From TrEMBL:
InterPro entries registered for this protein in UniProt: PPR_rpt, TPR-like_helical_dom_sf
Annotated region described as Disordered, given as residue ranges: 1-37
Entry keywords, A to Z: Repeat
Pfam families tied to this protein: PPR (PF01535), PPR_2 (PF13041), PPR_3 (PF13812)
Keyword Repeat: yes
Protein name: Pentatricopeptide repeat-containing protein, chloroplastic
Highest taxon listed in the record's lineage: Eukaryota
């Protein structure tokens, strides 16, 4: 281990007294720590529910939710109420009936045209005419393989072969567009159905199109489709509304998500299910509405249809994390086992991050160590949250300890992992360790980003290696990473510390708006400081003038550096002019400069007016 990590990863007490969140109170009285409602009551209702629907089925669907592979568009409502079915599940056994056709289609690339598809399927046209369900099987297989373009061309080829196309075929194509994230194609296929009386779209087709729009960031189009359904006498179902809420959530429209859940669905007597609530809670979480997220979580616990699951709790914990309510986040995490819910990596990482944001890094590390006891293997996100917590608290040793423990958990450090540790070492002045970490990144297939390079350049500054700082700055351009103003400022500060004023001024002149790098006060401060150390008092004063010309406000550091430049060259008259300007801006020199100036006044017998100016400051 190349870094001096003397202290092991600490193990803190597992029982933590959690005070109420300082950021706000609990919404109403229905929510109480450590869980939602009564943990035992919720657990009993969950057992009763599982008896009627099958414990194994519930667990399978829950697992599908945990890996984020929920299929919102399954027509089976009983599956929908438990979170859908995994995309990695077993394929339709009827696919074997069209296996030759599937093999022919797989040989065609995505660029194949309708003629190619028609030629591949022409021997089977009579079979498709006599058994339209096989067409659905064929198109559904294309949906599972996310081959939206081929699915659409299959539909066109079938029409050319005089196979009667029905709404289920078109819906399967739209579903393929959804899974392939081709929202424009989904809308095109849906629009082609409207003029045809025998191909009126159904709720499933609209829901699939809405889901495709949501995944493509077109939340407005998705909600517009939802509003059109009643006008076309198509009754939206739970799947439709879930797609609409999910679209609003992905678009950051928490108000629309809540309006759909609490107003539109009750108006048509469509009961919200677990997916409805989960999407709405996630929308509130993204919108920073933690109290509303907890209120929805509380409402879920009062129903027998949509009890909270891991996704619900993780979204609520994340909402508390974003609001800085770390006590509430821990309370929700601790309450999950009482609800027969197993915290997952998302739940743990959000709780660790919540602790890190408020400086509770010890508790964050304790949570990380408890995951192994709960038989939950921490992933990169959990480790990153813990390292970031240590980095923010200046605990570089613990940050590195977590970093080196990742291999034992079969977690590979990624870009965020390295950035946290490089930044921790840089802040602690361990510039050699920071640079060694950067050199390790390519070996672990971690790509440095602008944050990595900024921390490395700043580490070079602390190590007095201005040449290496410039190498990093030049390397950024070579790897197609645009240096930011922070990158330039760090490099200039490294050069300024060594008195390389010519290099600093060259870097400053390269910061141009057309390069998307705008100089700020820190940029000019580095230039003034470099000129001061290089004995260039005229250039230092000129750079100070340019601060105001750039419509920036000089800081105390700006004036102090200029004062030191004038003092170094014994330009006393210019010094007192700077002091008058500082007084006008309601500023004053720091204690060191004030003491130096008073001493000079005494030794050189300067005018009383100049001495009075110093005392006024």
């Amino acid at each position: 281990m190349p870094f001096p990590v003397s202290r092991p990863l600490p193990r803190h007490q597992t029982a933590v007294d959690l005070p109420r969140c300082s950021g706000g109170s609990f919404p109403k009285s229905r929510f109480s720590a450590p869980g939602v409602a009564s943990g035992q009551a919720v657990a009993q209702r969950r057992v009763d529910q599982s008896q009627g629907q099958g414990v194994s089925r519930l667990r399978a669907c829950r697992q599908a939710e945990l890996v984020g592979q929920v299929d919102l568009l399954r027509g089976d409502c009983s599956l929908m109420s438990h979170g859908g079915r995994s995309r990695t599940g077993s394929s339709d056994p009827r696919s074997k009936l069209v296996e030759p056709e599937l093999l022919s289609l797989r040989k065609l690339g995505q660029d194949a045209d309708v003629n190619d598809v028609y030629k591949a399927l022409s021997p089977s046209m009579e079979m498709f005419k006599s058994n339209p369900r096989l067409v659905t099987v064929l198109l559904s297989s294309q949906a599972r393989e996310s081959r939206a373009e081929i699915a659409e061309k299959v539909l066109d080829a079938l029409r050319r072969g005089r196979v009667e196309v029905n709404v289920f075929h078109a819906s399967a194509v739209i579903s393929a567009c959804d899974k392939g994230q081709r929202w424009a194609l989904a809308l095109s296929v849906l629009g082609s159905l409207l003029p045809q009386r025998n191909l009126r779209p159904n709720a499933f087709a609209y829901s699939a199109a809405m889901s495709a729009c949501a995944k493509g960031g077109q939340w407005h189009s998705a909600l517009l489709l939802l509003s059109q359904m009643p006008e076309l006498k198509i009754m939206p179902n739970a799947v439709s509304y879930n797609a609409g809420i999910s679209a609003a959530e992905k678009g950051g429209q928490w108000q629309l998500a809540l309006c759909t859940l609490r107003q539109h669905m009750p108006e048509v007597r469509v009961a919200p299910d677990k997916i409805s609530y989960n999407a709405a809670i996630s929308a509130c979480e993204k919108g920073g509405r933690w109290a509303l997220a907890l209120m929805l979580l509380s409402q879920m616990s009062e129903t027998k249809v949509a009890l909270p699951n891991e996704i619900s709790m993780s979204a609520a914990i994340s909402a508390c994390e974003k609001a800085g309510c770390w006590q509430l986040a821990l309370s929700l995490l601790r309450g999950m086992p009482q609800m027969l819910l197993t915290p997952n990596v998302i739940s743990y990482s959000a709780a660790i991050s919540a602790c890190g944001k408020v400086g509770q890094w010890q508790i964050g590390l304790s949570i990380l160590s408890q995951m192994a006891e709960m038989k939950v293997i921490p992933d990169e996100i959990c480790h990153n949250a813990a390292m970031s917590a240590c980095e923010k608290a200046g605990e570089w040793e613990h940050a590195l300890s977590v970093f080196w423990s990742m291999a034992a958990m079969r977690a590979c450090p990624d870009q965020i992992s390295f950035n946290a540790c490089v930044s921790a070492c840089e802040k602690a002045g361990l510039w050699a360790a920071a640079l060694e970490l950067v050199s390790l990144m390519p070996k672990l297939s971690a790509r440095p980003d602008v944050i990595t390079y900024n921390a490395a350049i700043s580490a070079c500054e602390k190590g007095g290696s201005w040449q290496l700082a410039l190498e990093f700055l030049q390397l950024m351009t070579g790897v197609s990473i645009r240096p930011s103003v922070i990158s330039h400022n760090a490099a200039m500060s490294a050069c300024a510390a060594q008195g390389e004023w010519q290099v600093v001024l060259t870097l400053l002149s390269s910061m141009l708006p057309e390069k998307r790098v705008t100089r700020d006060t820190i940029s000019y401060n580095a230039a003034i400081s470099a000129c001061e150390k290089g004995g260039q008092w005229q250039l230092a004063l000129w750079q100070l003038t340019r601060v105001s010309e750039s419509r920036l406000l000089p800081s105390q550091i700006s004036f102090n550096s200029a004062l030191f430049a004038c003092r170094r060259c014994q330009q006393w008259q210019h010094m007192f002019q700077l002091l008058e300007e500082m007084l006008y801006l309601d500023m004053g020199p720091d204690a060191t400069m004030s003491s130096t100036l008073l001493s000079e006044c005494e030794q050189r017998g300067l005018l009383c007016s100049e001495s009075g100016l110093l005392f006024a400051l």
